[in-house]
Write a structure and sequence with these properties.
13 helices, 9 strands, globular, two-stranded antiparallel sheet, seven-stranded parallel sheet
């Protein structure tokens, strides 16, 4: 709530300036595409400012920005104890913000401390009615069936998933929903339950890695460190870590048709590394061997 208060008090340009510092750190490590979520306004005007700031960052930087509207992140203080009213307000925000071209996808936090599966489904139904894909914060602290809910709405991705069960993972596989695992939050919150990586492998669910950069649970702005954490904390292989921040990350953003792998016709966003072998990107800690971040071209 302290972040909500500060975000509501910030101008659009203050949001851009604060975000730019974090974005610079990611670009310096070779990042070419990023997702920016809202979710710290919890009312229309501030959610709009966050999404407008994200669009401005895309115009100001050599990077692709995808926006996710996360109005269903938490109950605002003025709606304490009244999630029904607030979810109805979120459902009205979606067409308003989508109509302004500010939203690429709609996200929601389905958890005991946030919103129920039924409330999350309301948000998703409204999003799909506006022709928007959905994403979900799911099964982070308990198993509310968030993974299966994601699959039911053909979600692009589901974040966290520490408590997802096999039926939920299998449903995600059938729907093509990407599992986005977040070792930064696991580390920062000192969690004990790791995501069910073996089940994801068994059912061939695509696995992406993300920083989950946020002020409450993962103040992390290094994708290189995120890969190391994915390997050391979640036991992902080197190949899985590299795919998780390229191919599967693009898939999680609905961009795999145009980027994320080296194929004819796709965007050629390259980071050139001064390393002996790819494993160094996962192995080294506190070391950035980026040699050059190269042009946006098209592979022919």
């Amino acid at each position: 709530m302290s972040t909500v208060k500060a975000t509501r008090a910030a101008s659009e340009q203050e949001l851009v300036a604060g975000s730019q510092r974090r974005l610079d750190a990611l670009i310096a490590e070779g990042v070419t595409t990023i997702e920016i979520k809202s979710g710290y306004g919890l009312e229309l005007a501030t959610e709009r400012r966050q999404l407008r700031a994200a669009r401005q960052l895309a115009r100001d930087n050599p990077i692709t920005v995808r926006t996710s509207f996360l109005g269903a992140h938490a109950l605002p203080p003025e709606r304490a104890g009244d999630s029904k009213t607030y979810i109805a307000e979120v459902c009205e925000m979606i067409p308003a913000l989508a109509g302004e071209g500010l939203v690429d996808a709609v996200d929601a936090f389905c958890e005991k401390i946030a919103f129920s599966p039924q409330e999350t489904a309301q948000v998703f139904a409204r999003a799909r009615g506006c022709n928007l894909r959905v994403k979900i914060h799911a099964d982070q602290l308990s198993n509310l069936g968030g993974a299966a809910l994601a699959a039911r709405f053909d979600a692009l991705s589901a974040d966290h998933l520490e408590y997802a069960d096999e039926s939920g993972v299998a449903a995600m596989a059938s729907a093509g929903t990407v599992a986005v695992v977040l070792p930064g939050a696991y580390y920062f919150l000192r969690e004990k339950q790791t995501p069910p990586i073996e089940l994801m492998r068994k059912h061939r669910v695509p696995i992406a890695l993300a920083t989950d950069s946020n002020p409450g649970s993962s103040p992390l702005t290094s994708l290189l460190l995120t890969m190391n954490m994915g390997a050391t904390l979640f036991r992902l292989t080197v190949d899985e870590c590299l795919a998780a921040v390229t191919r599967e990350a693009a898939r999680a953003l609905g961009l795999f048709g145009e980027t994320g792998s080296l194929e004819a016709g796709k965007h050629c966003d390259l980071a050139i590394w001064d390393i002996e072998r790819p494993a160094e990107l996962v192995y080294r800690i506190g070391f950035n061997p980026l040699h050059a971040r190269v042009w946006r071209g098209r592979i022919t």
